[in-house]
Design a protein that fits this description.
The protein has 469 residues and is an alpha/beta fold. 47% of the residues lie in helices and 13% in strands.
Length: 469
């Protein structure tokens, strides 16, 4: 009997909630973070305090709040919550988000190289128990959780423990793992991922993820790696892995054109789901007339893209002057690749970017890649403050496959229900859109997109989901 969230009890066939964009430690609620900090004997404050000082200019009184909590002061938990979660006043800045996120590492054995492996395992088991209970409360029946596989032994213990705890076989929420690999060198962890995928708990590992530090790592650098994943999937269809790729979330170091191109290229190289993809759908008028900078190497990549897609871009109304591009390329070829050039955006060029976005969206829709939209994250980290400017409007209008996720629901103080409600309210889609989004999420689970589910599960008419009896 498949576990049913409360809203589905008594329903013969139900589209249950699946949250497919989650980061392990970002899921932890403030009360659990507070309890661990208050009881942990291993506290390493330097990283958090340095990051807060750099991002906010000051260190909040977290230690004082902890002492009040230990003394049993009634409002200490509420005060901690206010300091821990990301707020609208935090200015939509990734560095500020990361600084607050580092509080999660202060009392963590995973991030303490002196902690014994047994403490790491105990911590992860406690974390998973708390997350499972939280998902029960919030009606989640299926989730995909991303966790990094770094070079440290603690990271390996964490991943092994996650696979073991997710592989419980009980009647609770189903939790699946996506291993986050290093953008700079994904090959370093690939052998271990393959080993785990074909191992006894490999059915729990359903995807690989690329997140964090997007800006220095263009998707073109992953083409060979994506091909290796496809080769693995062909050889092991019952353990095939989906490719989940954060892209177009942070693009301070490049032109708007290049940011759009990165999203399209990630899809074309084989990413099954694209995380956030703000650059693809946000209205360029949000930025207004301004100046951006990018490297010569990035500009040359954009010129090559424009020449390759010249006819398609022109058909979308984009002005592409082949002769001018060839001349610009010749002039740039003699400059250092890391030299920086400036690009001016007036209203005309912003309109041109809007047409480029539509062209890229059409290409991605034809490929079938799924866009993961996390509204609260996009507002608080991505800085999309006005609901009317959120890219979900244009994604839906373009016919893209969209799923809604909660990203880091603990530090962002949200739930999947709240994220769905926000989208349906601000787009005017109402209950019908909500139903479609829930169904798209079920059909967009990693084992469906990778083709794995088809190798061992009959088609139920629910995108591979089990039908409650």
């Amino acid at each position: 009997m498949t576990w049913l969230p409360p809203r589905c009890v008594g329903v013969i066939i139900c589209r249950m909630l699946a949250d497919l964009h989650l980061h392990l430690y970002g899921m932890i609620r403030s009360h659990d973070v507070l309890h661990r900090l208050a009881t942990s004997k291993r506290q390493r404050w330097e990283r958090y305090e340095d990051a807060m000082r750099a991002a906010f200019g000051a260190i909040p009184p977290i230690k004082e709040v902890l002492e009040r909590y230990r003394r049993g002061v009634a409002d200490a938990a509420e005060a901690f919550h206010e300091l821990f979660v990301l707020r609208a006043g935090d200015a939509g800045d990734f560095d500020r988000f990361r600084a607050k996120f580092y509080l999660l590492t202060v009392g963590s054995a995973v991030k303490d190289p002196e902690a014994p492996a047994a403490e790491v395992e105990t911590e992860i088991r406690d974390v998973v128990a708390g997350l499972s209970a939280d998902q029960r409360r919030n009606g989640i029946s299926h989730s995909e959780v991303r966790a990094p596989l770094g070079p440290s032994m603690h990271d390996r213990v964490m991943i092994d423990t996650l696979l073991d705890t997710f592989d419980t076989g009980d009647d609770g929420p189903t939790m699946r793992l996506a291993i986050s690999l290093d953008r700079a060198d994904p090959w370093a962890g690939w052998d271990r991922v393959r080993e785990l995928a074909v191992g006894p708990s490999g059915h729990v590992l359903t995807g690989i993820d690329f997140s964090a530090d997007e800006e220095p790592h263009p998707p073109k650098g992953k083409a060979e790696f994506f091909a290796a994943v496809r080769e693995f999937n062909g050889a092991h269809p019952d353990r095939a892995l989906a490719i989940l790729y954060h892209v177009g979330e942070s693009f301070r170091d490049k032109s708007l054109e290049s940011a759009v191109r990165w999203v399209q290229q990630a899809a074309e190289f084989g990413a099954h789901r694209l995380g956030h993809a703000i650059a693809l759908g946000v209205d360029p008028d949000v930025f207004g007339p301004h100046t951006r900078q990018e490297t010569v190497a990035e500009r040359l990549d954009q010129i090559a893209y424009d020449l390759d897609h010249c006819e398609g871009l022109r058909s979308a109304g984009v002005a592409v002057d082949r002769a001018a591009l060839v001349a610009e390329r010749a002039a740039l070829d003699s400059r250092p690749a890391d030299a920086v050039i400036s690009i001016e955006y007036d209203r005309s060029r912003l309109d041109d970017v809007r047409r480029r976005q539509r062209y890229a969206m059409d290409r991605i829709a034809a490929i079938g890649s799924v866009i993961e939209v996390c509204p609260t994250s996009n507002r608080l980290i991505g800085g999309i403050e006005d609901p009317a400017h959120h890219p979900v409007h244009r994604f839906l209008d373009a016919g893209l496959r969209v799923i809604i996720g909660s990203d880091n629901p603990g530090i962002l103080d949200t739930t999947l229900d709240a994220e769905l409600d926000w989208v349906c309210r601000h787009t005017g889609g109402g209950a019908e859109l909500r139903r479609e989004l829930v169904e798209t999420a079920w059909a967009g689970r990693s084992e469906i997109l990778s083709g794995r589910a088809a190798t061992h599960r009959p088609d139920t008419g629910m995108g591979g989901a089990d039908v409650p009896s």
